[in-house]
DNA sequence: CTTCTATGCTTTAGTCAATCAAGTATCTAC
DNA sequence: GTAGATACTTGATTGACTAAAGCATAGAAG
């Protein structure tokens, strides 16, 4: 469903614009993932693996339980998009690595997730800079 | 997990900023919903009901299957946040209406979903306008 | 070296969102 | 009044997610 969806009641123009933007972004992400046989969560995890990651490290950045990651990785591994290696120093830990197919699949996904790219392409360089500054400033109130 | 999460590889500053913003927005929505005993999808549906809606009408705007809406409404109804009335002219159809508790609950949710509000509050009025214009322009390439 | 505790991950069980296919009831048109 | 469309529900299946319990290994304390 790509929630959040639906502008809230007494919103300013800016709030509605943010809302619409986020909604469009989420939907585009979902669609692009699906086009390449990935769920959004799978695409998201696969995208992080530009280097080997531990399970709890992934759970950490993605803000979810380690057991959730286990399941997602199991599914990715079953499709040979990812490999689970035992940590070199600590044999309890795992190093999650993208396989070549995983690399390729993610590259394809990223290629068709045109949203951010085409959003940027609507703006001049100066506007891009402006937007970056405004978004960062808007974010400055929130944690993380 | 609030996907999308994780900046893509060769991204511009603006793309990363968009990404971070969307991610923060989604997470804040999720957290606020949970604080009031709602799932994001439930909050999202509840938020639409400022007037009576039909099931397929909801499915339409939210871009999902009608049977998905059925389930969400059933859960909301079980908690008395929503009522399902039979359509006055067409007895196949349903009019979904928020109960007073539903109204109250959503108002609480909206109150604690401070993200958009506090994001806006970081900006001057002129900046708010600028951001609105830029987001709309960025969106202008995408469908819907 | 042994035990105790903490850590890193997996397993299991449960909820919810989401989709698809099939079903029921009602409406509309002929 | 029957045929077909429409509005929704039901049932089955998949995946994301959480919480609790479990297992193996690591590190520390004795």
Automatic annotation (TrEMBL), chains A, B:
Domain HTH marR-type: 11-140
Pfam families: MarR (PF01047)
Signal peptide residue numbers: none
InterPro entries: HTH_MarR-typ, MarR/SlyA-like, WH-like_DNA-bd_sf, WH_DNA-bd_sf
Official protein name in the record: MarR family winged helix-turn-helix transcriptional regulator
